[in-house]
Design brief:
Blueprint (H helix, E strand, L loop, with lengths): L6 E12 L3 E12 L3 E5 L6 H8 L8 E10 L2 E2 L5 H7 L1 E4 L11 H7 L8 H14 L1 H4 L11 H13 L5 E5 L7 H18 L2 E6 L2 H7 L2 E6 L2 E7 H4 L3 H6 L25
Parallel strand pairs: 3-8, 3-9, 6-7, 7-8
Antiparallel strand pairs: 1-2, 1-4, 4-5, 9-10
Length: 270
């Protein structure tokens, strides 16, 4: 849960352009409280991943630029830093699609996360055991090549690798992608425990709206590069528009197409 209302990350009215012409984010603003779990929701292509990459400064590799606005972490501008400097400050991104080093073992993958640390082998080993305590499934596979583990195990390795860098904040991109529902439940449960027990702040981009709203404190809904709705996760999950357009539920039950004058009712917030 968030601590004393202190803001750890502040995104202020950012615009992102790819290839100097394609406007992807159009004035996105939000705050992440220290010790909280905040989720960015929306359909594919809404701008969730771009928002995370703007924060972690990985846009330049894809010919993207933040052309307006600012991003602050603990009150300091970070949009001009390198990704390497940002990791040292404690902001880590877990990429969509996991991106494990397939030829390395599970344990070697985890140790790559400690690359920027200088506090000695003993402290790194302690954190390795801490990661294994949260992810016992990958402890059993520690000597296996990561490429031969399941998608769920690779997602656990990716989150564990991020934890090895001793982050204050983790940007988690589509952790449920391609995973079985029970594994998704397990991973979200571990994220919640890491938040409560280790004090790690999470900013989560997720298409699985139902799952994200169950575990997050606050949610922002993105559409076409704009935030169209935000609120406490518990309130969003009860919002009729969110139920209808993102959770597949309608307050009036199932309707026949004959009873609906417009096949696709316009969203009230547009």
């Amino acid at each position: 849960m968030s601590e004393n209302g202190q803001t750890i990350l502040s995104v202020n009215n950012i615009e992102v352009i790819y290839n100097h012409v394609i406007l992807v984010l159009k004035g996105v603003s939000f705050d992440v409280p220290k010790g909280g779990i905040v989720t960015l929701l929306g359909a594919n292509g809404a701008g969730k991943t771009t928002t995370l990459k703007a924060i972690s400064n990985l846009l330049k590799a894809e010919r993207g630029d933040v052309t307006k606005g600012s991003i602050e972490y603990l009150g300091e501008r970070i949009d001009l830093l390198t990704p390497h400097d940002l990791v040292k400050k404690g902001v880590i991104q877990v990429m969509e699609g996991r991106h494990c080093f397939e030829h390395l073992t599970v344990e070697e993958n985890l140790l790559t996360g400690a690359y920027t640390r200088s506090d000695g082998r003993g402290a790194v080993n302690d954190d390795l055991e801490m990661v294994y305590s949260y992810f016992p499934r990958i402890k059993d596979r520690r000597k296996s090549q990561a490429g031969y583990t399941s998608g769920g195990e690779q997602q656990m390795v990716a989150i564990g690798r991020a934890l090895m860098a001793k982050p204050s904040m983790i940007l988690l991109d589509e952790p449920s992608m391609g995973l079985a529902p029970q594994l998704v439940e397990e991973i979200f449960g571990i994220v919640k425990r890491l938040n409560e027990e280790e004090g790690v702040t999470f900013l989560l981009a997720e298409q699985n709206t139902n799952m994200a709203l169950r575990f997050a404190d606050h949610g922002y809904i993105l559409e076409s590069g704009r935030i169209v709705l935000d609120g406490k996760a518990s309130e969003l999950s009860e919002n009729e528009d969110v139920k209808e357009f993102y959770l597949g539920l309608s307050g009036s039950g199932r309707k026949s197409f004959r009873d609906v004058k417009h096949y696709r009712r316009r969203k009230r917030w547009l």
